[in-house]
Amino acid sequence: MKKNVLITGTSTGVGLESSILFARNGYRVYATMRNLDKADELRKKIKEENLTIELLPLDVTNIQSIQSAVQTIIEKDGRIDVLINNAGAGFAKTTEQSSEEEIRSVTEVNYHGVVFCTQALLPFMRKQRSGQIISITSVGGLVGQPFNELYCGAKFAVEGFMEGLATYVSNAFNIKITNVEPGGIATEFMKSAVEKTTGDDGQLASGEYLPIFERYLAGNQKRANESKEQVYQTGLEVAEVILKVAQNEDPPLRVRTSKWAEDFCQLKTQADPDGTRLVSQIKDSFL
After folding, report:
1. DSSP 3-state assignment of 287?
2. Are 69 and 6 in contact (CB under 8 A)?
3. How far is CA 189 from the centre of its chain?
4. Residue 36 in contact with residue 57, Cβ under 8 Å?
5. What CATH number does residue 49 fall under?
6. Is the pTM of this model over 0.90?
7. In 10 A of CB 282, how many CB atoms?
8. CA-to-CA distance for 286 and 171, rounded, in angstroms?
């Protein structure tokens, strides 16, 4: 029997590549996105390869939209085996120069969307006594970075949410939890982040922040020029890690997707790289 997987944010990048890869590997994929007008590339792949992928509208910032998509799948197939919380939006700007709307938006998409999608799936996974929730976070969910503090804060929140959830739903209801933590991804993600968050002058920072920002940009460019292949992964490379997690009978709480990401987070993760020891300790302490 094919496993059903619901993936959010599948119009481009990791979500698009994951939808195709999971379908190629025998999953029935429900590929969701806020605007199905952006599904042309996925539709093309479905037709070319006769992939078992169904497109559904799902806006992770709208609870009714989430519930409607979930209900559609349940009415059709009766179960959802894997949820991949992939939808997200980059944001790079100083806290001081960010508007209230921008702050709320980056939190809504990157954190609240994960919580509400997970909340919508939990009753069904609990009832069927099986399931897997994979959230695509970031090295920014472990390590705060300049001009990314609002984005990192939302991803830190996802890490904490999933870590807390893993301490009791895994044993009680056989629901597996994993955070997949990419570093740089060579997709439209960062380009979109910059385009959405630059001000009228085209800068992410101004005034006294500008010299710091210019050093930040110069450092990023230097690292990219020196080690582009090591830093930046393709969406497919990250999707391959996600598939391995889904196929793992006993997946870890955390997994970085590249050596660069592993090295970048080492000071935070060296005592417990995959989070397994900590979850075990919390279970022993509280349960």
Report:
1. coil
2. yes
3. 12
4. yes
5. 3.40.50.720
6. yes
7. 15
8. 13
- Report the C-alpha gap between 34 and 21 in whole angstroms: 21
Tokens (6 digits) for 267: 């000071």
Query: For residue range 144-172, what is the model confidence (pLDDT) as tens digits?
Result: 999 999 999 999 999 999 999 999 999 99
Centre a 10 Å sphere on the Cβ of residue 54 and count the other Cβ atoms it contains. Answer: 17
Q: According to the model, what pLDDT value does residue 189 have?
A: 47
Expressed as residue numbers, the domain containing 69 is 4-286
List the catalytic residues: 151
* Residues in CB range of 250: below 8 A, 6 or more apart: 176
* Phi and psi, residue 98, nearest 5°: -95, 145
Element (H, E) at 5: strand 4-7
Q: Please tell me the distance from the alpha carbon of residue 91 to that of residue 208, in angstroms, as a whole number.
A: 20
Q: Write out pLDDT tens, residues 227-251.
A: 555 678 999 999 999 999 999 999 9
Could you tell me how many residues make up the chain? 287
**C-alpha span between 221 and 173 (Å, rounded):** 46
How many separate domains does the chain show? 1
Residue 184: strand, helix, or coil: strand
